């Protein structure tokens, strides 16, 4: 008969297999949440056992992006049980726990505690956990790095963001903490014409790839600014679930992340 300590060892062993991939950016509005959601969906389609955590405690958006706003997680032995999104990705966000639109006025330790609850949940057979980080370099980032030890980080930036070195700051934070840099994704890279699909580059092309090289990390790919991506994201229908050109682009990035 296994004793309590055996159970604890078994749980620790199980917990160790969770490969946490943080998705981060230097500032907000660059498409970090959009990429996180689509990365999770694309990895699932590629056959990975993936879960999604919305670590943007103050401004959660994953419940809307993944059409799971109406779900409430249960708890077992003080651990949350993730909710299931319609596309079959288990997930947790503060939006599942607090009333929509209610402002949280929490200090660092409470935020760090909330993050712990979301990550140390009962993830079952999940092997890869995509964590949508809040923008910038604050308490949640430090807590994430120190307590939850991500296996790697994907940095998202737009072409303008790179010029403003916001992305560089995010890269530095993870680099200093020795979190492996999985690579850089350039979002809103060029404008995809909704009529003919042709992508034009109002901010020029190739800047992000060059910047990734300069910062010594792989370039994972570019996602254009496309009305369809915004429309489907708002409707809780991630483009990565589809087979069109955007779905393919997200899957190509997911393949590199999974390597
Ligand atoms: P962040 O998480 O970095 O704050 P979001 O993922 O919330 O950014 O994206 C900000 C807004 O831009 C959202 O309305 C989203 O739908 C839109 N968006 C993100 N990426 C794209 C894209 N490639 N094409 C069109 N709209 C996009």
UniProtKB/TrEMBL annotation:
Keywords: ATP-binding, Hydrolase, Iron, Iron-sulfur, Metal-binding, Nucleotide-binding. GO terms for biological process: iron-sulfur cluster assembly. It comes from the Bacteria. The keyword ATP-binding applies. GO terms for molecular function: 4 iron, 4 sulfur cluster binding; ATP binding; ATP hydrolysis activity; ATP-dependent FeS chaperone activity; metal ion binding. ATP binds at residues 26-33. Belongs to the Mrp/NBP35 ATP-binding proteins family. Homodimer. Binds and transfers iron-sulfur (Fe-S) clusters to target apoproteins. Can hydrolyze ATP. This is Iron-sulfur cluster carrier protein.
């Amino acid at each position: 008969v296994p004793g309590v300590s055996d159970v604890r060892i078994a749980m620790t062993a199980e917990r160790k297999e969770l490969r946490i991939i943080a998705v981060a950016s230097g500032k907000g509005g660059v498409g970090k949440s959009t990429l996180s959601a689509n990365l999770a969906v694309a990895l699932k389609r590629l056959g990975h056992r993936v879960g999604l955590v919305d670590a943007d405690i103050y401004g959660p958006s994953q419940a809307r992006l993944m059409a799971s706003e109406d779900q409430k997680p249960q708890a077992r032995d003080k651990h949350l049980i993730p909710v299931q999104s319609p596309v079959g990705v288990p997930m947790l966000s503060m939006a599942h726990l607090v009333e929509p639109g209610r402002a949280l006025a929490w200090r660092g330790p409470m935020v760090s505690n909330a993050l712990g609850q979301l990550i140390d949940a009962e993830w079952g057979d999940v092997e890869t956990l995509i964590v949508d980080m809040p923008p910038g370099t604050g308490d949640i980032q430090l807590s994430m790095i120190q307590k939850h030890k991500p296996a790697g980080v994907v940095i998202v930036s737009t072409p303008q963001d790179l010029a403003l070195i916001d992305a560089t700051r995010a890269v530095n934070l993870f680099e200093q903490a020795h979190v492996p840099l999985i690579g850089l994704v350039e979002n809103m890279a060029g404008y995809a014409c909704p009529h003919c699909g042709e992508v034009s580059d109002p901010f020029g092309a190739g800047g992000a790839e060059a910047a990734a090289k300069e910062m010594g990390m792989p370039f994972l790919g570019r996602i254009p600014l496309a009305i369809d991506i915004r429309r489907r994201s708002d409707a809780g229908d991630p483009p990565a679930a589809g087979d069109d050109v955007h779905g393919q682009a997200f899957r190509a990035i997911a393949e590199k992340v999974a390597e």
